[in-house]
Amino acid sequence: MCPPRSPGAVGTNPNARGFTLIEMMVVLALVALVSGVVALSIRPSPQQQLGLEAERLALWLEAVRSQSRGLGQIMQVRVDASGAQILGPRSDTSPGARLSWLYDDTLPVAVVTLTLGPEPILPPQQLLLTSRTDGRTRVQVGTRGLGPWAAQ
Q1: What's the rounded Cα separation, in Å, for the pair 48 and 95?
Q2: C-beta of residue 32 within 8 angstroms of C-beta of residue 39
Q3: Residue 141 DSSP SS3
């Protein structure tokens, strides 16, 4: 027959060993800290950076194209090493008149001036983005005229 148990000791074994709540919290905090440091230290490759810049530029050019249609006038955009900028009298008052590169090593292969008119069909236009650190990596941004601007 088993000896009677006291009410506070139900299911406890005095020889059982385990982790305390404090030990578990310390381990979880260390794992979170290490994973955060690792996640922040991983940088995207030059190809990924250019892809992101090309997508941003294509979306921005579509927004400027829509703005041109809404105003009913031709707008020109200059793309250079510092980013893209609307040229002309509305360049200071237009919302989003400038797009700066997210990554400092992004630049176009050549300085380009693009024409975005109020007509729905534009002449085909394109430009190439490259990386200063890796000149072999290039991404093309363009439109065939009828379709939207896209990174290719």
Answers
A1: 28
A2: no
A3: strand
Backbone angles phi, psi at 85, to 5 degrees: -145, 140
**Closest among 70, 51, 48, 62 to 122, alpha carbons compared:** 62
Q: What is the pLDDT of residues 80-135, one digit of tens each?
A: 999 999 987 665 556 678 999 999 899 999 999 999 888 888 889 999 999 988 88
Phi-psi region of 72 (alpha: psi -120 to 50; beta: other; left: phi over 0): left
DSSP-assigned letters across all residues of 60-84: HHHHHHHHHHHHTS-EEEEEETTEE
SS3 48: helix
The number of residues making up the chain comes to 152
β-sheet with 138-143: strand ranges across: 106-108, 125-131, 138-143, 150-151
27's CB contacts (< 8 A; 6+ apart) are none
